[in-house]
Amino acid sequence: MKSITFNHQNTSAIGIGTWHIGEGNSDKTEAEMAAIKYGLDHGINVIDTAEMYGEGLSEKLVGNVIKDYHRDDLQLISKFYPYHATPKLIEESLKASLKRLQTDYLDLYLLHWRGDIPLEETVLGLEKMVQAGLIKNWGVSNFDLNDLQELTSIPDGKNCRINEDLYNIGSRGIEYSILPWQKKNHMSFIGYSPFGSDGSEYLKIEPILTAMANQKHVSVHQLLLAWVLRNHDLLSIPKTGSVEHMQSNLAAIDIKFTADELELLDLSYPEPKHNGDLDTI
């Protein structure tokens, strides 16, 4: 398994996303658990989940999987609702997530998106959870540059270790300012939905993607994931509901692009030339 440096740790080149995982019937749940186990057994060591995903069902499924693994070998990430972002509610949400995940700590705990609660309160609550040993580090999700700059200007705000935003070939806004700023400030990045979510409903598949995938004898989804991973300086977390899809994701790690191929893709999916509102799903 190829690795990257993520959150100052040696980490697998991809993680496991779990949005919509654990919400189906028993057969679907069994297939999803088998997929996660396959990924863990083949070198992936990061799982990303949230209290929002199925209102805890995703965390329960993940907990049932990871109980059979050495906890210290995994990096476990979960996220909390913005209306749970006070110190009291952060602690309550975190303890509920830990119970569902069958673990006594998280490696990272993220504010899922920004709400109305002042960031100072949220940071205070997260720092208390670090001090209590219930989380190792904390971060945020769906923050733009202004949000990140405001966050890091408040007391202990610079302790934010992660920001997680939408990132795929059709949603490249983070490349203009977010990625350079986070690199400068030693903050790791997670890109979610490399396929434009399930069925690529939030990503238009241009003919160049199909043609290039056929030329390389890979699937379009493999090409999309490989493109996100092309610079190896961020973590992508594709959701996977079957062993077959997990195998496909793992194989995508080894796909390479020539400079000419990347330029060709840029014609249909241009890189951003200015700051703008970030896409979200």
TrEMBL record:
What Pfam families does UniProt report for this protein, alphabetically?
Aldo_ket_red (PF00248)
Q: Which Gene3D superfamilies match?
A: NADP-dependent oxidoreductase domain
Q: Which InterPro entries match?
A: AKR, NAD(P)_OxRdtase_dom_sf, NADP_OxRdtase_dom
A GO molecular function for this record?
Answer: oxidoreductase activity
Which residue range or ranges hold the NADP-dependent oxidoreductase domain? 13-266
- The name of this protein is NADP-dependent oxidoreductase domain-containing protein
Instruction: Name the species this protein comes from.
Output: Companilactobacillus kimchiensis
